[in-house]
Design brief:
alpha+beta, 16 strands
Length: 433
């Protein structure tokens, strides 16, 4: 019986992996600009971390986690998101003891047992940033700006930033009480919302059920209940975004799906993605470090799904022209020259060229056909007569032009041709600009 990948998972094949590597490099480059350092955490954690961190009333904890007992009877969970593990590591290793602000980023696989759909899988990849150590609204603005600048660096358009404040526990309490009072008689709410009503009424605003959204369309905005400190924090955050030239829209229904958020919450959406249009979401979590066992320490961050982002980039044509083609392929015409060809190919690789060595000696026609399929720019041909003279032949695949070259000079010769081709393309682009 053929064994396939489990439902909701997928293989990243070599051609696709080029796109992933390009995206990962761009993410690291932008995060470097802003001074964020990479952190890598285990793919599974103690289940309690997510119950305490994310919140027991969230869909993730209630329905979606992959949880199992190990041989010692300990409950473990494959990480469904990245913030709680990063904060756990921050507390466990006392990164706060250095004082000041800690700026971290992560990238890797996450796991949620949910219905697979476009850009959403049971094993998916996520990256994000976490900024810990200050409650300054400047940090809220920076984290939002990092996300927007990253997407601009990737070439995304049609982006919109949604921002809201859900206040602190003190001012949020009155809002939750009023929500409960207004909604407790609505038995038409979905089963999840009726359950949330007792534990965290604000989560009802996050429900995607059309009927629930219709029933709650006239509830007051949480921003009407903000205390002076939370209102001031929101106003300053928005003013900093204005100064940085970040366009945004205040969205009073935005509450995000995790219980650890306080004050600022935000999403970045892409209009071309349809219903599942968020490419990034995040916010402030001023009590999560303490909840996980650390000292009182404010934080703010965001996370972004990489599959959704790659889908968006594909739809906007950002991967056109990606190629894994080698610069050089080898063709060996005599079995006795196979070892010499392999040695020369190895030397060219060491000198910085991407090379496909000849691993099977066949006819010249077959080897040239193989080089064509690889889309190699040049083929180095080892024939018996040339090799005796200390030479090889170099053929440019684009036009078939061929040269005999001293084999000690072949690397420099090919690099010169590549440089000339590259500068010619630059001049051609300049003539049309």
């Amino acid at each position: 019986m053929k064994i396939s990948a489990p439902r909701g998972t997928f293989d990243i094949l070599p051609e696709e992996a080029l796109r992933w590597r390009w995206l990962e490099a761009a993410i690291r480059r932008v995060f470097d600009y802003y001074g964020y350092q990479e952190i890598r955490t285990p793919v599974f954690e103690h289940t309690e971390l997510f119950q305490r961190g994310i919140g027991e009333t969230t869909d993730i904890v209630e329905k979606e986690m992959y949880t199992f007992n190990d041989k010692g009877g300990r409950s473990l969970t494959l990480r469904p998101e990245g913030t709680a593990p990063v904060v756990r590591s921050y507390v466990e290793h006392k990164l706060y003891s250095k004082g000041g602000i800690t700026k971290l980023f992560y990238m890797g696989p996450m796991f949620r047992q949910e219905r697979p759909q476009a850009g959403r899988f049971r094993q998916f990849h996520q990256f994000g940033v976490e900024l810990l150590g200050t409650e300054s609204p400047l940090t809220d603005a920076e984290v939002i700006t990092v996300a927007v600048e990253l997407y601009k660096e990737l070439g995304l358009t049609d982006l919109e930033v949604l921002v809201n404040s859900i206040g602190c526990p003190a001012c949020r309490k009155k809002y939750q009480e009023d929500l409960f009072s207004r909604l407790s008689s609505l038995q038409e709410l979905c089963e999840s919302c009726l359950r949330r009503l007792e534990k965290n009424p604000m989560r009802i605003l996050d429900c995607k059920n059309p009927r629930c959204r219709e029933l709650t369309k006239d509830v007051p905005a949480v921003t009407d209940y903000l205390c002076p400190a939370c209102r001031d924090h929101l106003e300053k955050t928005l003013s900093f975004l204005d100064k940085a030239g970040i366009d945004y829209r205040l969205e009073p229904r935005l509450v995000r799906g995790f219980d650890y958020y306080t004050r600022t919450v935000f999403e970045v959406i892409n209009a071309g993605l349809g219903a599942q249009n968020a490419v990034c979401g995040g916010g402030r979590y001023d009590h999560l470090v303490e909840e996980i066992g650390g000292p009182p320490m404010p934080g703010v961050g965001f996370a972004s799904g990489m599959e959704r982002l790659i889908l968006t980039l594909e739809q906007q044509g950002k991967f056109a022209g990606f190629s894994s083609a080698p610069q050089v392929a080898f063709a060996v015409l005599d079995e006795t020259l196979a070892a010499d060809g392999f040695a020369l190919a190895t030397r060219l690789r060491r000198e910085g060229l991407t090379v496909e060595a000849c691993l099977e000696v066949k006819s010249l026609k077959a080897q040239m056909r193989a080089a064509g399929k690889l889309q190699a720019k040049f083929v180095v041909i080892l024939g018996e007569d040339e090799w005796k003279d200390g030479q090889v032949s170099v053929r440019r695949m684009a036009d078939g032009e061929q040269w005999r070259v001293d084999r000690e000079e072949v690397c420099r010769f090919i690099k010169d041709l590549l440089d000339r081709d590259s500068s010619g393309r630059e001049q051609e682009r300049g003539s049309f600009s």
